[in-house]
Amino acid sequence: MPTILGQNQYGKAENRVVKITRDGDTHHIKDLNVSVALSGDMDDVHYSGSNANVLPTDTTKNTVYAFAKEHGIESAEQFGIHLARHFVSSQEPIHRARIRIEEYTWERIATSDGNSKFIGADEVRHSFARKGMETRVSQITYDGENWEVISGLKDLTVMNSTNSEFWGYVKDKYTTLKEAYDRILATDVSARWRYNWTSDEQRMPNWEKSYEQARKHMLQAFAETYSLSLQQTLYQMGSRIINSRSEIDEIRFSLPNNHHFLVDLEPFGLKNDTADGAVYFAADRPYGLIEATVLRDGVEPQIPVDMTNL
Predict the structure, then answer these.
(1) Catalytic residue among 30, 61, 126, 259
(2) 21 catalytic residue (yes or no)
């Protein structure tokens, strides 16, 4: 029985594009996941393998990043309109373009007052937390006499769009990473902190207030630290909590380094400099994983190194 070709489409799915717009010291983020699907006069490529009418999917990917730089991202809808119009109008064989966009929303991190005792507490307008991702966690252990309360959070995605560098590291024959003097620093915070309340004879902490304050100090430290490494930022986040909350003795972090790489737009005649707002490729794998415990001086660690089951 003869066969015929039915509906078909092709394109590049899930192009992660992050556009940073700099308005002086105030930065704005557009974080999109863009999928392109094209259809039209594509019979020959299926029947005979002729690519005469095929725009490579790699080209559609490049177009997404180039358009983010050339046209900006006013909104997901407007960006999709630009892309769809371009693909259909510039390529005669393409009759239909479908652009699907997921947008990840970020909100600004409120920093501490300008007269704070903490270094770097001036107004910051380049630090963000992604909305709708955080999960609060707690583990309570009681043996009939003693209590152990470990609280924390996971999946709190944060980003600094500047004030982060990474250079001066060890280099060997396998090193290809270029030193960075103005980079995006982003991570998904997983943190657990242990309270020093262990007995009913002690005054019990205000758990709600303690969580809110620990989270606040963590985020403020992330925003206000000029980072030369994610390790340095981690230590500042933990130290700020320990120094600000007397009921917490220990905190452990697991911080993946969510890499953002500058996209090479030179083949399209476009400069992609951080100074005037850049376009980045957001890579979720592989990632650096930074983990450490911060302790009050004189306290022995009790939070497990592996927090998988906490």
Answers:
(1) 259
(2) no
